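Hi L.,

You mentioned the student needs an example of a multi-chain input paired with its predicted structure. This one should do, with 534 residues in total across all chains.
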Amino acid sequence: MHSSAHHVFEVLRLVCANDEASGVTEISRRLSLPVSTTHRALTTLERTGYVRRTESAKYEIGNNAERLAFGLLRRFPIREAAQPFLRQIAAATDGTTSLHVRLGWFGIRIASIFSESDTISKLERLGEPHLLHQSIGSTVLLTMLPSGRQNAYRAFVASHYAQMWDKFADETVAAQGLEIRRSGFAYERAAPMHDVFAVPVRDPDGCAIAAVTVQRMKPGRAPIATDSQLVQCMDVVSRLESVVRSKMDALRDPYAHLDPDTILLDVKSIH
Amino acid sequence: MTKPVPQSNKATERILRVLTVFADEPRKSVGVTELSRNLGMTKNMAFRALSTLVNEGYLMRDPGGSRYELGYRAIELRNADFEEQDWPKICVAYMRNIHEITRETVTLSIRAGFHSVVIDGIEGRQPVVTRVLYGRPIPLHAGPGSRAILAFMADEEIEEFLAQNVPLAQIRDTTIVEPAALWDEIRLVRQRGYTTGYRDHIPIGSAIAFPVLDGSGHSVGAIAIGTADEVSGDARLQALLPALRQQMDELNGRTGASLSTRH
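Structure written out for the whole complex:
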């Protein structure tokens, strides 16, 4: 193991994880590293564009780090293929329209088109992994999996993230699974003036390779099943599905060949 | 007591430079030989750097096992502000830096059909400066900002612009209106990476402009630096070119990373 490289990556991960820029002393203390080691790591990272030094001599994430994270999102070819469809949905619904994919047993929002309306919603952060049952977009991905794979997911959560599963999660997943299979969408009214619906993007086998969510700050008054914006969204998604069917090979998940049980990521509890 | 300036760690710096290759083209898989050749390091060095990056989870072997791809742990290299980028917003900080470097008027134009339109700007601090004129459509063949956008459009789009706009409007004596001459200008701009002012739109002063690029290397807009100093303006801007290029390369790295499709 290249230990000095490992320290440098530890420092990089901490700088990225911090919401505010942090100083050398604080980083040293949190990683239990000598100040000189931390300083050297930060200088290396700054010279290569992975961190940036602020005017107050603290360190924050640099361009090259963010470019790699964007690079990861761009590795999912569906992100690019779905762009024009997401734009149409955002224009038709006036809601924040997002695309979610599965990475191992995690859901990630990989793209969003923000509407022209004066308020927008960012419930989940772009690129932030969460367990599949933790948000409506990724629950769609979970419930469209064959039941054997769903059981494998439950076993994975039980062995690595047990504190993030409870009876409530069981009920929510079961209820949303029923709704998606019956009506082709999942729906949540988060607050009186805020709702979200999620629609799967299915491959020819009927599995969801992605999910589209629309978060609206001004939900319609009609019952959701007859909501014209939802109907338009489902119509656009079905056109996206025909693109998916015709280009399935080109749109494959770049991490599909990895065993999902080996992918462990830090998750924050949502809600 | 002043502390000695900390040294950078050369071996780790090399590892990080290897990783950066994957930021430029995240969908490509890379082999040891091409990597060592492109970065000017020995195969052994490249192999060790790749192995470290695989151990850290930032790279992985491709399904064939002989090449390397961006690994899923790259997702951790983001912070709380990570979001779909509004590219004109990314430009603002770089326009400010360019203004600090040049003290001249800096404008941001976007492409709107067959025109460019100035949507943002910072006026210079000299006694006489060129103005920022917002919202006025300028044909894509006239003025340095427009030409910077035109030169970095796809060839077929340029052909379409010509097909629909020839004969091109002769706005000033110096405006290039012959398609063949405009193609020569486009090739020159692509080679240099920037345009210079011919007073082909505004009849005074001098300017240079750089394209703002998406992930495929096509233009979405342009940043222009204009000076009213007719005597030594050109020479000053030329002298500042390396510093300006550095700003634009960094900016285009950011817009290129987030703008994967044509907007």
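You could point out the following to them. Chain A touches chain B through 62 residues (CB under 8 Å). The domain at 75-262 of chain A is CATH 3.30.450.40 (Beta-Lactamase).

Best wishes,
N.
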